[in-house]
Amino acid sequence: MGHEHHSHLPRNDYGKFIAVILTFCLLAVIGYALQHTISCFLLSWVIAYLLDPFLVRAENNGIKRIYALALLYVVLGILTVFFLTFIVPAITINWNAFIRDLPLYIQKIKQLALEWKARLPDRYGSEEIDWLIEKATGKVDTAAEKTGNWFYGFGTSIFFNLFNIVLSPILVFFMLYYKQTVKDTISSWIPEHRRELILGIGEEVNSSIGGYLRGQVVVSIIVAILAIIALFIIDIPHPIFCGLFAGAASILPFIGVLLATLPALFFAWFKYQSIDVLGQTGIAFALIYFFEGYIIKPLVFKEAMNLNPLITIIMVMALGETLGFWGILLALPIASAIKITWGHFVHGDFKHH
User: Fold this and answer.
1) Rounded to whole angstroms, how far apart are CA atoms 121 and 143?
2) Residues 129 and 226 in one domain
3) With b meaning 16 or more CB within 10 Å and e meaning fewer, what string describes 167-184?
4) Which of 64, 141, 144, 260 could join 249 via S-S bond, C-beta 3.0 to 4.6 A?
């Protein structure tokens, strides 16, 4: 009888593991179906996560949470007015210039392809190469049309997400104000014999996710500012656009560094067509990411997540496919939360409780 009892334990454990996986799959499907609603919620949740340490510090200094929250919103209101007055017009001008110049870039690609075709030697296989170039140049206009549609759709999505931007401050306020109430309510739902364990895991996950999100925002802002300054100095077209792209690309692990340089190199080549300028641009980004990797991140990220690179890439791809930008941003925190929870499970902490 004892042998039968022990043989059923692993099966039950695997059953629980499969149930957890199926639950995550179900949540992913629901997230994809309700991506706009969830996008608004995630935006509010991330903002609340970033702002909560200021309120905690104020509470530790004897200031009531509601007063600290009101003061925080006044400061954010002033910063928002400054942002809308000075930063948004500059970004809009840069974006409009990029859209205006887009057909010129596409026509230049076409011209370079035709010039390359004319310089090809008349050797064996050149007919096949000519055919490939003709097919490629014939698709340029179609690509231009699709690119224009993509940018129009991107602009439309930004306009649609203005609703999220307006609604988010309201959600953030309630998330921050009722934080302790929500924590107490969730804690009351946990069985008493597992409450201490699960709350402890929650604190570990909270520390990991909070540190990552706050650190990543700081890193992205610094990379964007440094890139904009460097591109202004080198006189590369659309420096604000390239700098913001570099800051956003720094979210991606491993490949973000490579992706961040592509727009700047693209614009540098089409303006100057000089190897020297390409080299200057490449060196500028190399210095920025050396500074980011060896100085900024060690200072900002106090605790490394120590995630497997393969798992990291798979999580980024999978969640990016289902939740878009938010999936990419939250892939590492979610992977870290799963790793922390799975570590407690493997060590048998759940069985001991």
Assistant:
1) 28
2) no
3) ebeebbbebbeeeeeeee
4) 260
Residues 150 and 62 grouped into a single domain: yes
SS (H, E, C) 139-150: CHHHHHHHHHHH
Q: How far is CA 140 from the centre of its chain?
A: 30
| DSSP H/E element including 9 | helix 2-33
* Residue 140 shares a structural domain with residue 113: yes
Residues 202 and 144 in one domain: no
The total number of structural domains in the chain stands at 2
Range of the domain at 215: 196-353
Determine the residue type at 132: L
Residue 11, token pair as written in the block: 């099966």
How far is residue 12 CA from its own chain's centroid? 37
pLDDT in tens, 87-96: 778 777 877 7
> Distance between CA 42 and CA 36 in Å, rounded?
10
CA dist 38 and 52 (Å) reads 20
Q: What is the pLDDT of residues 163-182, one digit of tens each?
A: 666 778 888 899 888 888 88
